[in-house]
Each structure stands twice: as structure tokens, then as C-alpha cells.
Write a structure and sequence with these properties.
The structure is a single chain. By secondary structure, the chain is an alpha/beta fold. The chain has two domains: about 100 residues, Arc Repressor Mutant, subunit A, CATH 1.10.10.10; about 240 residues, Vaccinia Virus protein VP39 (Rossmann fold, 3-Layer(aba) Sandwich), CATH 3.40.50. Helix content is about 50%, strand content about 15%. The protein is built from 15 helices and nine strands. The strands form two sheets. A seven-stranded mixed beta sheet has the order 5-4-3-6-7-9-8, sandwiched between helices. Strands 1-2 form a two-stranded antiparallel ribbon. The chain is globular and about 70 Å long.
Length: about 350
């Protein structure tokens, strides 16, 4: 029996869900356009240039005008460009430029579209994981995942890590200024490690990650920043990285990806110097699912389904936290690991910044 014809349907509710679905479909198409504009330098060519014709944009970027014109129309339709009808010119406003053209801006998102592109590319792997319960290791994903994740987090960290997050921890900034030993676990491309090293030249930093490609990229980034005298990157797991006596151990948006977060927390407890601190940065989430209904939560749940949980399962899956674990579940992990102090230092719409001590 057909469900739609046999069940009473509220036309207003049906219109609302259809509108939502079309909006999401439009956003998916639009994401491809944003990625193309970012990779071809179309946004950068328009930033600060005022109103431009399609031919002028094409000339500035070395692209074919007919394609550029259609792309420009898509951007106007999506609200990402202003259009001057009388002169048939297109303009990237200062606000739009911060989001789409300035890759140093804390609200730059154009590069982050590489993440959903990788998710689509890995769809068959996700289908197999759903059917079998198997995991997908981080290193088995489409290569766009790694640069997309780095792009998504880098500028937010740049805007907040040194000026806001570290000062929210008790006494940590003072230690870093004086000279501390720091471990950055799950460091990825090492942007967080390098930012701290640039800000605190008296301290020494070691970044650890299981993904060798990311470790190699992190070393290049450190070299470009001129901080290799105080920063090293190594391939190691969260439960057995070397060293001891760390004054600060950081987990930036990575603990929930681990198959055994309790083992990672226990190892951190063993590696801390007396009076040391664990800084845990996790995706923002409330403790109850019904309180996590928002565009940000949806983004995190979706990524968690095919990336975070998939890696944790591949990594043993003793505890699969997911990207919306929430403060209470994270606190429980650290209390079980022997920590006696755990508090929320601060929060943003995207992150929880948590402090743990023995």
C-alpha cells in the first residue's frame, strides 16, 4: 500500500520539507561552484576590484568567459556576489571577500568544501561500512579530506587559539612564555602546533599523528614558518607517543576520532609533568541529542558518520564517541583516566575548550 496516499499528509509540512530538501540540494550544487571559484582564483581576482564584467573576471584569471559568466550568475543567485543590472557587472563585497577570497580570514570557508567532496568520493566505502560494521581508517579516505579539514580548522585556530583559548586555561600562558614542553596529539597538518610555537618561542613543541602524509606536510609548514628549531613532528599513536614531563598536552578536535579515548587520556596522565594541563578542544555539542539541532550540529553529525566514527571503529572501536560527544561524556573519559579536575574553560559556536588536570 502506498504510504503517501494511505496516510494523511499535512500540505504545509510537506511544503516545508520539500523546500528544505531543495535548499539542501541547491547548497550541494553551490558548493561545487564555491570550490571551483576558490581553486581557480575567481574570488581572489574580484576581491577589492569593484564591479567587473564577466570578460574582465575571465581576463584576470585566464579562464574562458562563457564559463565564467555562468559561474558568476550562479554566485549572484546564491547570494555570494552582488550584481549591478544597469552595467551588467558583478561585485564581491568586502564581507563576501572575507568568507570566500581571504584565506587568512577566520571566517574563510571556501577551502572547506573539499571535505564533502571527499565524503562523496568515499561513498562506496561508507556504504560498505554501514553494511558490515567495519571501519574506515583516516588514511584510506580521498585525499581532499586532509586539506579540507586543515582549511576548516586552521583560521579558526589562528583567530582564537593564542589570544583566547590558551589564556582561558589556568596558568598555561605564563608557563608557555617562560618555556614549557608541549605535545600536540593528532596534530594533522600541524597548524595548531606551529601557531603556538610562533607565539611562544621559549617553549618546545612536539606534534604527533598516525597519518604519515599529514606529518610530512606538517614538517613543511613548520619549515616555511621558520620554527623548526623548536618544533618536531613524528608519527605516533595517542596511547604510546614518546616523551614525558609535558607541561601541556593538547587534543585539537581529535579525541573523538580515536578508537580508545580512555587509553589516550591515561597515556596523557602518565606523560604530564607535575602540575601539567591537558587542553581538550572538541566540536561544540550539548549533552542531549534533542539539544543538538542546528546547522552546525548537522554538519558535525554528518562528518562524524562517515569520518570520525568510521576511523574510531577502524582503530579498535572500544569507545566510539563521535563528533557530538558533549561535555559530560568527555568528562567521564578523563575521570576514568585518573584526572581529578575537569572544567569547561570556554565555548564557541564550533568548539568546546576543556581543561583537565590530575
Amino acid at each position: 500500500m502506498d504510504y503517501v496516499t494511505s496516510t494523511a499528509v499535512d500540505p504545509a509540512k510537506l511544503d516545508a520539507i520539500v523546500s528544505r530538501a531543495i535548499g539542501d540540494l541547491s547548497a550541494g550544487y553551490g558548493g561545487v561552484m564555491i570550490s571551483i571559484g576558490n581553486r581557480l582564483g575567481l574570488y581572489k581576482a574580484m576581491a577589492g576590484a569593484g564591479p567587473l564584467t564577466s570578460r574582465e573576471v575571465a581576463s584576470r584569471t585566464g579562464c574562458a568567459e562563457r564559463y565564467v559568466r555562468e559561474w558568476l550568475n550562479s554566485q549572484v543567485a546564491g547570494g555570494y556576489l552582488a550584481y549591478h543590472a544597469t552595467s551588467d557587472r558583478f561585485e564581491l563585497t568586502p564581507e563576501q571577500a572575507l568568507v570566500l577570497a581571504n584565506d587568512e580570514s577566520p571566517v574563510f570557508v571556501a577551502g572547506a568544501w573539499a571535505v564533502p567532496a571527499s565524503m562523496w568520493a568515499d561513498e562506496d566505502k561508507a556504504l560498505e561500512a554501514f553494511r558490515t560494521g567495519s571501519g574506515i581508517p583516516w588514511g584510506d579516505h580521498d585525499g581532499r579530506l586532509y586539506c579540507g579539514v586543515a582549511s576548516f580548522y586552521r583560521n579558526a585556530y589562528k583567530a582564537s587559539l593564542v589570544p583566547e583559548w590558551l589564556p582561558s586555561l589556568d596558568g598555561v600562558t605564563e608557563k608557555l612564555k617562560a618555556g614549557a614542553c608541549v605535545a600536540d596529539i593528532g596534530c594533522g597538518y600541524g597548524h595548531s602546533t606551529v601557531m603556538m610555537a610562533e607565539a611562544f618561542p621559549a617553549s618546545r613543541f612536539r606534534g604527533f599523528d598516525t597519518h604519515q602524509t599529514s606529518v610530512l606536510e606538517a614538517r613543511k609548514i613548520a619549515a616555511d614558518a621558520g620554527v623548526t628549531d623548536r618544533v618536531t613532528f613524528e608519527q605516533a599513536r595517542a596511547q604510546d607517543y614518546p616523551g614525558a614531563g609535558y607541561d601541556l598536552i593538547c587534543f585539537f578536535d581529535c579525541l573523538h576520532d580515536m578508537g580508545d579515548p580512555l587509553a589516550a587520556a591515561k597515556h596523557a596522565a602518565r606523560m604530564l609533568a607535575p602540575g601539567g594541563t591537558v587542553m581538550l578542544v572538541e566540536p561544540f555539542a550539548n549533552d542531549r541529542m534533542e539539544d543538538n539541532i542546528s546547522p552546525v550540529a548537522r554538519l558535525y553529525y554528518a562528518a562524524s558518520t562517515t569520518i570520525c566514527c568510521a576511523h574510531a571503529i577502524s582503530d579498535g572501536g572500544r569507545t566510539v564517541l563521535g563528533a557530538q560527544a558533549g561535555e559530560a561524556r568527555l568528562r567521564d573519559v578523563f575521570y576514568k583516566a585518573g584526572f581529578s579536575h575537569f572544567r569547561r574553560a570556554m565555548a564557541t559556536p564550533f568548539n568546546l575548550i576543556l581543561e583537565a588536570r590530575l
